[in-house]
């Protein structure tokens, strides 16, 4: 397999970690940047490289936790990965005949 660069997407704004008040605006910025880039989901295996340029923390509670930065970013990348359908787990009846 040869490496082929497909697209570079730069997202402007302050990143946000998973499960914080700023997560939605951050995801919206990622989705917007992907849509603007014109990239389409690929029908092949591919690699994604993420780079975060982080500023100094604004206060002692702001911590740049790498896995919590990556999760919302990947969640917002449907324009690159394609959409997935989530099926709820099958429920087993609590009652039994008989």
The geometry reads as globular
* Percent helix: 25-40%
Number of strands: 0
* Tally of helical runs: 3
Give the C-alpha Rg: 18 Å
Q: Give a quick account of the main beta sheet: strands, pairing sense, barrel closure.
A: none
Briefly note the structural class of the backbone.
mainly alpha
Quote the distance from N terminus to C terminus: 59 Å
Uncertain regions spanning at least 5 consecutive residues: none
H-E order: HHH
Q: Approximately what portion of the residues adopt beta-strand conformation?
A: under 5%
Integer average pLDDT: 83
Structure commentary:
The structure is a single chain. The relative contact order is 0.22. By secondary structure, this protein is mostly helical. It has helices at 23-37, 66-75, 78-81. The chain is built from three helices and no strands.
Write the layout of secondary structure elements.
Elements: H1 23-37, H2 66-75, H3 78-81
Looking at this protein, list some descriptive labels.
98 residues; mainly alpha; 0% strand; globular
